[in-house]
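Assemble and predict.
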Amino acid sequence: AQSVSQHNHHVILSEAASLELGCNYSYGGTVNLFWYVQYPGQHLQLLLKYFSGDPLVKGIKGFEAEFIKSKFSFNLRKPSVQWSDTAEYFCAVNFGNEKLTFGTGTRLTIIP
Amino acid sequence: EPEVTQTPSHQVTQMGQEVILRCVPISNHLYFYWYRQILGQKVEFLVSFYNNEISEKSEIFDDQFSVERPDGSNFTLKIRSTKLEDSAMYFCASTGQGATNEKLFFGSGTQLSVL
């Protein structure tokens, strides 16, 4: 079955620490990959996406993600987090149909 | 950036009542979606809508749910007889070329509370 896994449920970091959030999916075919962010009280916003080409994609606010096809992974990274990065982060995958399948989300708390 | 708008932001209803959640997708978009997020759980796909018909729906989207595009701008989700377990945040989304081709634009959500 097609599924998306985010193994980190809650991550707590200090400001300036480096961040890596894991995302894995199960499916052998072509996928489109997304990271969405939900700041407290706000709607889902796209951070970055991968459709094809360079597997290292850069998004807004200094975030990047790397698609590793052999590992079925699309991990989100940021070299130095800020307090304003506190939010819920969702990995989402399109498996070639008309819907996105979301992971369970990772709550990121940044301590000033 | 253009926005998807949803009304109301919070809806409280009694179990068994009908509710209609409203969405105004981005004006030139053709594909429309409803997702929901039960508190503490993942965002789940409910239904996609294109060319005035449902193109895909999940097992959650049973006979109690329906969608409609009553005019050129609104996209509604109706729940005929609400249950306690329908309490969730409901997100509308739209896109111009379909979910396989581009990102979804999400609205800010309607928090539905069924008492």
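The first strand of chain A starts at residue 3 and ends at 5.
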